[in-house]
Amino acid sequence: MVTATSQPAETAPISTTLYQTVLTQLREVAALLELEPGMFELLAHCKRELMVQFPVRMDDGSIRVFSGYRTQHNMARGPAKGGIRYHPQVSRDDVRGLAMLMTWKCALVNIPYGGAKGGVAVDPKALSRSELERMTRRYASEIAVIIGPEKDIPAPDMNTDAQIMAWIMDTYSQQQGFSVPGVVTGKPIILGGTRGRTEATGRGCMLIAREAAREQGIPLSGATVVVQGMGNVGGVATQLMAQAGFTVLAVSDSSGGLYDPKGLDIPDILRWRQGRSYLSGYPRAERITNATLLELPCDILMPAAMEGQIGEHNAAQVRAKIVVEGANGPTTPEADQILLNRGVTVVPDILANSGGVLVSYFEWVQDLQAFFWEEDEINQRLEKSMVRTYREVVELAQRRNVPLRTAALMLGVQRVVDAIQARGLYP
Ligand code: NAD
N or C: more exposed end of the chain, with fewer CB within 10 A? Predict the structure, then answer.
């Protein structure tokens, strides 16, 4: 649950918006796939965008108006799917870019969804629990016109969690007059959530880090890792990588980073952080900034916080062998080029963090069937699917002599194009 404390966030330079980044990537891939200009235009735009301004009664009796978004990029392959983010910097452009990435991601892992994203421009840590609930319910009711289990299925993203999904599911169900568990994924198990969803994205990142290390002949035991962001994605990935024998040199959150050249004691850090909102104050490691963290020598760097963290300003200083993108859009196109020239392998977001949407899909399938699976089965299906997709991407990258990001996007975009062409243009 999001807890209330005030802690100044470190701000990292973000020069390119995520939407610009995603468009640049699409342009490059459209040329390689030889897409006709009209098809590029179609893919470069979002099918449906809803912007809502809504009032919420605050605890002191005042009224505050919030801005929220729900954007559906493309639904040629099925209902739209994508998370909901609460962050002060949420903007229409970010949501567009994130929705587009979801379209490619769902197509890449071959699940029958299109892409969507939503968000509210808010710092949820500055709200009380009851303010957060009222804001979430009102936002859910505002976007209820376009979401639904056959239309668009939200999930958690930055600063949203299973409790927030439960409030959205309940609000939507109240409006329908019956329980609709399939309207969101990432909800509590008691409401039709799935086992393994909370860990899914981080678990997938760990699996991809493992595959990428093997590919480069880096022994897993003792492979050094640096993780930016200790939330749902980074926190779980760090824990699982430490369990798998990786040496975690540094971790961070918005309050800054912790570093130990001999390896951090991850179980101790996670125990210490329980009941606290931030890592700052942990006594048994050196303090570093997020900027320094990104430049530490290591085998694997996993940015798992915000977009635009590795850009033109710092890509030349990244000393990792492999970057595994836990976050969406953490590397700008300029940085991609610099890393490529320096021989750094970048495993792209739509592959590395696809474990979340995969297990969300498993949750939705279980909800529709009202029949629930064991955790082992979920983790096995997750691993099988992620490893298979990783291999497909590596194979295409080698065959076409392109970076992994380009190959992953080529696979995803082509599947969307195939679906659009098979359906034909209406009318
Ligand atoms: P979260 O809110 O659980 O955690 C975010 C973490 O990043 C926190 O530790 C926060 O302190 C830290 N952070 C925020 N700003 C930072 C900054 N400027 N520098 C360093 N650290 C900072 O969010 P999450 O769900 O873990 O999502 C993280 C990223 O992963 C986002 O890009 C999100 O879109 C992506 N993602 C999430 C999921 C999912 O299932 N949750 C799935 C796919 C992709």
Answer: C
Segment 27-56, tens digit of pLDDT: 999 999 999 999 999 999 999 999 999 999
At residue 299, does pLDDT exceed 60? yes
Amino acid present at 114: G
Are 78 and 114 in contact, with CB atoms under 8 Å apart? yes
Answer whether 0.85 is exceeded by the pTM.
yes
Q: Which domains does the chain have, with CATH numbers?
A: 4-182 (3.40.50.10860), 198-352 (3.40.50.720)
Structure tokens at 268: 């101790």
Closest CA to 208 of 139, 300, 319: 300
Whether the CB-CB separation of 202 and 240 falls below 8 Å is answered with yes
Strand ranges, E, within 271-359: 286-288, 298-303, 320-324, 345-347
With a Cβ cut-off of 6 Å, ligand 1 is lined by 10, 12, 156-159, 201, 228-234, 252-254, 290, 304-306, 326-328, 353, 356
Taking a C-beta distance cutoff of 8 angstroms, is the pair 264, 251 a contact?
A: yes
